[in-house]
Amino acid sequence: MKVKKVLVSQPKPASDKSPYYDIAEKYGVEIVFRPFIKVEGLTAKEFRQSKIAITDFSAIIFTARTAIDHFFRLCEEMRVTIPDTMKYFCTTESIALYLQKYIVYRKRKIFHGETGKLDGLMSLLIKHKKERFLYIVSDVHKEDTSILDSNGINYTKAVMYRTVSNDFGPDEKFDYDMLLFFSPSGINSLLKNFPGFEQNDIRIGCFGGTTAQAVRDAGLRLDLEAPSVKAPSMTAALDNFLKEDAKNG
């Protein structure tokens, strides 16, 4: 069966220049952006149950823009005044620059790594080892924090947002020939929305090893997996797949 309609379980790209649009035009397929999961912030009441006082900390670790949004949202809701002396440590420069949405960037002590992972921040964290770090995370964060422990970093994890299923409405069509997933949470949401889901001719593609394992653990067939040597991105993998599909169709 030829693929005609693809569900990409991510938000619609902000730019019209997304490779997905090129692929849709190239192969004459319809690509629909429809997340299976969504991020939801904890309420101030929920966060207070963690007994974490933000003002007890002298530095914050951010690994995502979403973490920044929910940190400042909760501070505002709880009327917490963040001192000008607070230091901010971000895993990438783009995350660090995002802080400009909430603070006067040039007047604050902001540090960033290059790799996007905690290990890329370690030299900076060790240099500021005397700080008390608050590490903002989601309820399903996967970052390995053993590197913080082994280097004696004084930190506390603070869950400020969570990933929940973005449920399908009763009148929402589910007529896709292919589903693309980017996290195990997406697979869980698929099975929650459609408890008796039968894959049959529906192709399933995923990005990342943990997502691939989640597909297999759910007893589903995995038809496309990225990244790989030939396809470092999901769009490259989809392009290759549809090319073969067109030949065989």
TrEMBL record:
InterPro entries: 4pyrrol_syn_uPrphyn_synt_sf (IPR036108), 4pyrrol_synth_uPrphyn_synth (IPR003754). GO terms for molecular function: uroporphyrinogen-III synthase activity. Residues 24-235 form the Tetrapyrrole biosynthesis uroporphyrinogen III synthase domain. One of its GO terms (biological process) is tetrapyrrole biosynthetic process. Pfam families: HEM4. This is Uroporphyrinogen-III synthase. It comes from Duncaniella muris.
